[in-house]
Amino acid sequence: MSSHNKETNSQNGSVTFQSFPVLKDLPKLSLPALAPVQVNQRTLTLHRNVAGDFGFNVRRTQFPDFRGRLRAVVFAEPTEVRCGPPRPSDIRAGLLPGDQLVKMNGRSVESLGREELLAIIQNSGDQVELTVRAMPELAELCDRTQRGVRDTGDSLMLPPVSNTYLDENITEDERYWLMHKNGYTMARMIETQSDGKVHVMVAGAEMVVDVTDVDKANPSNMDRVEDLARLRYINETSAVHVLRHRYGSGLLYTNAGALSIICMANEQEPLLCNKLVALFKGCRRQQMPPHIYASAQQAYRKMQMSGRSQCLILTGVTGSGKSTQLRNVCHYLCEIAGWTKSLSYGKISAALGVVEAFGNCATRLSKNATRFAQMFSLSFDAAASLRFASIRTFLLDSSHVVKQANGEANFHVFYYLLEGAEPELVQSLRLDSITKPFRSPLIREEDKNAALLGWSRLKEALSTLGISAAHARAIFSLLAAIGHLCCAGATQSPAQKAQFVRASSAQHAAALLSVGTDQLASAVFRGKMSSGGQSGPGNVMNRFSLSNRGQNGQEALEAFVAHLYNELFYAVVALLNRGLGATNLATTTSITIIDFPGGNFNAAWSEESQRTSGLADLTYNYLNERIAELFYDTSFTEPIDLYDREQVEVDIEKPTLCPHQITRLIDQKQQLLNCVDIDLRSEERRGLLHILDEEALFPGATDDSFFERIFVHLGESRLIRRGCRPREFVLGHCLGGSPTVYSVNGWVKAAQPNVSEGSVLTLLHSSRDAAINELFSPFGMTRSESATLNIRRATQAAKLDATGLPTACGFFSNISMQTECIISFARHAGGVQFVHCMQPQPPSEDDGRSTGSEMLLDVPFVRSQLRSLLIIDATRASSRGYPERLSFKDFRRRFQCLVKSSSSLDDVLDDRAAAGRILEDTGVFPHTYRLGLSQVLLRSDVLADLENRRELCLSGLIVSFQRACRKHLSAKWLARRRTLDSAIRCIQRSGKCYIKVREWSWWRLYTKVTPLLAAARCFRFSCLRFSTS
């Protein structure tokens, strides 16, 4: 990048400085130094309890740092943890989960083994002295109990650290961040010029830069602030500075307003334990530090208070750790709401493992990339207890089975089967006959070990979910059949005349499917069974048969295999839902986590920037843009509309850029289908996928004609341009900040209907294997499974568009309907929260992990991820707005206890006036709330302050109520005890009397004669009845 120098004379003398119109190569500028994390250490003295131990466990493990180097760490964790945030007594005299042991009885434990540590504990007397320090997340949690809600200081209580920019003694008004290609640097503002330039001093040199190249800096005590909305100056550079400091301190989570949390992905993130869950249970948002458990707790608490279903949406590029956060949310909700034992986390983890095995694969950007979208729902009853779970899947990239780009692998389950199957299973499935190109042997030893471990976990998960051995064997047979079909190959002749190249592989596949070889060939190449029953799209296929674009044998085989795997995937999901208890049980609310494939926008930042994207990548990038559109509407459009309806003035403006433009560029439908003017109808603008749908139906269309039509209809848009090579175009994703290159080779063929689309299920239903037939039979399904099946069938058949006209191909309708199902579900949920998963560094080329550079966090890369979703603008809108809303009636009912009750007529009849009086009497500042027409609008910290006051006000009443309850229970226990005592005394007196008379001869006679009296009485009664009859 270029820069030029110029000299300027000031009035006081000649001063030479540099002007950088475009900041690129600045001399000797680096990022600000990170303050070292020095969490306060605690010295505890623990005494032996009645069990003879000290009430804690010692755990020694190898913990990786950010560079991937392992270091020995000793943890001392309590055996029991109370629910809720730690009390001051717990901090002063007790251990917390995640406490790192530094010293034991004054001796450093860094070089001691587990046996030596246990020996020190055993040799201790009645007490032991421990020196510990809390993990960063709990350091924030511990500090929170000692400071107020409005405190925005450094949560780690770090001592003053001498940084490079602090040594310059720059006043707060002159502190600015200067942006450059490597990140940012502290600068001193000298003056602002009238031509859009500013005069700054950086590293001892003065220069003139554009005003857009500087951002206002916050005080240094906000370097690790928990919520970006608390920053005094909310801008991109300050947000990146906070994220960089928190990530360097081991703090992976940062709040970004009321509805968002940022997660900086870390591949070496430790597994979270159950004891940590207890510290978040029952807490409000302001009582918890930023954490994924805090987001789950907030959703659970809102569901309990409002009685409405909640939704958590995980966003981020591919490889950013969304699937890991999905497991963390499920783990937390199972622990806090699973007291009925209806559904354990073990089953949920098993189900997630199975669906990941069938739907995840290794790509060039991630070693465990998700190739489908899912909505994982946890359903609760009226008591907020977890009852069952369900999985709904969308947009599976089934074509990945037959076509993988260079450097990418097939779905995990195939490697699990081929590498880990037992010899008996290998022989019965003929897995040794599956060769290249489908079977690519694993070279690295760690990959083989991972495949073996994945196979054992897959079988264990199927058993845990109650899937029978017959169904599991049917699944494995279908997987092996897919492998044999890929190895069989087909001739390049037209599909109606094509045959298998390797007949033996086709015979193996037919045997595993329990169908005839002729039936299989007819279903694959002619789309009908050997009996003559047609199972294709009917008139649509006849139309394509008249054109010169019919499929050849290999294309028909690949389409059949892709549809076969698609049906297998949905059948496996149906079995998982049965194992998770997704039946017709009555539930009231649910929490749904939406996880979807991340966009490949990070490819431009890695070595993969030269590779082009395909049709599947466009589909997933379009879904990411729709989620960004939803986030935009949730953060800007809906609040502004709410303020307008409530007639409240708030200083919030929509950003100039919005994701709606790129989404309409992709999915805009044609509105003039019924117009009689053909020229006007042909010139109407339509989306890219709609153009592809039309080209797929047009006889004689090719990829070149499709490519030219794109620029006929969309050429005027600045979000799309031609690429450097033929059949390539560039889309400006992420508000134009992530240009992605696409190649249209093979798109028209992929969008066309094929002869095998309807023959797969017909072939599977005709199978002689009862397990396979039952696996794909619609009979015996529950109501929810049947509804899901109907939705999926509808998206794969001929569709009706908005005007009622039939669209035969259905490719665009398939993508549009499934995407709209996800978006509409999130829009109609009772509450939506976003978890933004971010990568600290671009992925490397070898295994999709972050690059191992010495830079802890790639500032430009993180800045681009913040810009892609307008997170900073949304945080600023949340800070300036009023995100907490309560109706006047609910607000009055909840906080009436804070003021004296009034008997005035206005307060009794007018809830709005009563709410205003409550806010005035409690001393809430007028600028922190607004009274609308139907509800109270509050800042987040105001609601937290009112909640704290309410708890303090009701604490006395609750204590009195508890005292009365305990008195009542004690009285009942005492009465029961007195009755028991009387009974015992009576029994004792009777026993003593019996001991005195048991040796008396008359008593013995009495005890022997008494049983005979009953028989004699019965005989006399019988005789009397006989005589009277």
Automatic annotation (TrEMBL):
InterPro entries: Kinesin_motor_dom_sf (IPR036961), Myosin_head_motor_dom-like (IPR001609), MYSc_Myo18 (IPR036064), P-loop_NTPase (IPR027417), PDZ (IPR001478), PDZ_sf (IPR036034), SH3_Myo18a (IPR057772). ATP binds at G316, V317, T318, G319, S320, G321, K322, S323. GO terms for biological process: actin filament organization. SUPFAM superfamilies: P-loop containing nucleoside triphosphate hydrolases, PDZ domain-like. PROSITE patterns: MYOSIN_MOTOR, PDZ. GO terms for molecular function: actin filament binding; ATP binding; microfilament motor activity. CDD domains: MYSc_Myo18. Coiled coil: none annotated. Keywords: Actin-binding, ATP-binding, Motor protein, Myosin, Nucleotide-binding. Residues 43-136 form the PDZ domain. PANTHER family: DILUTE CLASS UNCONVENTIONAL MYOSIN, ISOFORM C (PTHR13140:SF706), MYOSIN (PTHR13140). Belongs to the TRAFAC class myosin-kinesin ATPase superfamily. Myosin family. This is Myosin-XVIIIa.
